[in-house]
Amino acid sequence: MLIIPDEADRLIHQNLHRLPSEPCELAEAHGRILREDITADRDLPPFDRVAMDGYALRFQELAGGRRIFTVAALQRAGMPPGSIPKAVDSCIEVKTGSAMPLGANCVAPYEETERTGDRITIICELAELRKVQALHLKGSDFKRGAAIVRSGTTLVSRKLAVAACCGKTVLRVSERPRITIVVTGAGLVDPGAALEPWQMRRNIDISLQASLRAAGFSQVGCISVDDTRAGLAGALCPAVERGDWVIATGGISGGDLGFLPGVLSDLGVKIVFHGVAQRPGKQMLFGVGPRKSPIFALPGNSTAVFICMHRYVIPSLYVASKARSIGLAKVELAGAVTFEPELDYFLPVKLDPRSAGRIAIPAPLNSSGDFTHLIGTDGFVVLPAETDALPAGTTVDFWHWV
Fold first, then answer.
1. Element (H, E) at 60
2. Contact criterion met (CB below 8 Å) for 345 and 339
3. How many CB atoms lie within 10 A of CB 335?
4. Contact, 333 vs 381, CB < 8 A?
């Protein structure tokens, strides 16, 4: 009996074991999922920081009408803050990133001044300058102890930069699961091999490995086997016994080559469900190995595999890694669509670049085997089985390719 996609999600997540955490050097942490909060170890910025090159002075002197000042010193980034002299016409030249001199509360940028020797003249109107001009005040970003990056976040360059600012050299991250891809298909030929006109080149393993690595999961191995029960069992047995996450393709239909469900059962895999009310990917199977590892068996069609990978496998990896929940995107259809009812339909789309990702242009494929036309798409939308037509402007769920 077919189950709906939401029920498939529930059953998959119910059977997932959360991955443990491990320490990771900061320089190696890009793409990993954080398992601790990154907190400010001091106020940020930790001092009143000059935001542009210029001259630090007392705003009250400007407000009183003074326009000519004497440069008493130079303050560069990394130097301890000096003090502005008490003389009423004094200022200090400052560089971006330097500490604001004590007693000063305004910076006149270079372009608003003229300098002769050690004297500067303010040439702009007072209205163009203000107190705390060009000044990044202490603690105005975050106070000491504030959580800046939350546990469950995928670490990208700007978040790693924040970690460095907070003095982190090692971060706790989710362990990366070991993933084994098993691709079946006697009629598939290696990309570089000679082939006959009636043969197809193998591409499923390439797309799966690339998708997983783009999502941050790089411990991926791939085995290609013929459509035989013995070959399939030989490829799957070591991965299941190790407790790898397994992604198998093909061999799950009801035909005479549908060996996979039986092989998995022989290996001690508990079949949680087999069949989802969706198109493509109706024959999808999910099970749990003897070591509680997830087993995803996807149809042999490359387009169905690619969509199921993004709809189920990658989200499940994020859940197991304790990634923070990422809200499902919503988009509006740019044009009307019609489709066969009774199954949820996963329709590839291209996002209209003029809409800031809000409008999806339907890009139906020629067939379920038309993988090449996915090149021009950004992801897919879910069209619910309850209807057979949706007008332009309908809001639907959107899943982005990684």
1. helix 59-63
2. yes
3. 12
4. yes
> Which secondary-structure segment (H or E) carries 55?
strand 54-57
pLDDT digits (tens, 9 = 90+) for 351-368: 999 999 899 999 987 665
Tokens of 303: 């387009």
Is 315:296 a contact under the CB 8 Å cutoff? no
Separation CA 18–CA 271 (nearest Å):
20
Both tokens assigned to 7 = 């029920």
d(CA 279, CA 26): 42
**Total Cβ atoms within 10 A of residue 266:** 13
pLDDT digits (tens, 9 = 90+) for 148-157: 999 999 999 9
Residue-wise over 351-370: b if at least 16 C-beta within 10 A, else e?
bbeeeeeebbbbeebeeeee
Q: Which residues contact 151 (CB under 8 A, 6 or more apart)?
A: 34, 35, 36, 37, 322, 324
Return d(Cα 94, Cα 83) in angstroms, integer.
Answer: 12
Question: Which residues of 145-262 form beta strands (DSSP E)?
Answer: 147-149, 170-174, 179-184, 188-189, 200-201, 220-225, 245-249
pLDDT of residue 255: 63
Distance CA 105, CA 321 (A): 48
Strand partners, 107: 56
Q: For residue 273, count CB atoms less than 10 angstroms from its CB and return exposed for 0-12, middle for 13-18, buried for 19 or more.
A: middle
Write the single-letter amino acid at 97. G
Question: What is the reported pTM?
Answer: 0.87
Residue 145 CA neighbour count, 13 Å, CB half:
0
Beta bridge partners of residue 22, listed in sequence order: 173
Q: How many CA atoms lie within 13 A of 370 on its CB side?
A: 12
Q: Cα separation of 150 and 39, whole Å? A: 9
User: What does 269-288 look like in DSSP terms, one character per residue?
Assistant: -EEEEE-BSEES-TT-EEEE
> Which sign does the torsion angle of CA 243, 245, 247, 253 carry?
positive
Sign of the Cα torsion 391, 335, 311, 397 reads negative
The token duo for 78 is 């990394």
Cβ-based neighbours of 67, under 8 Å, separated by 6 or more: 121, 122
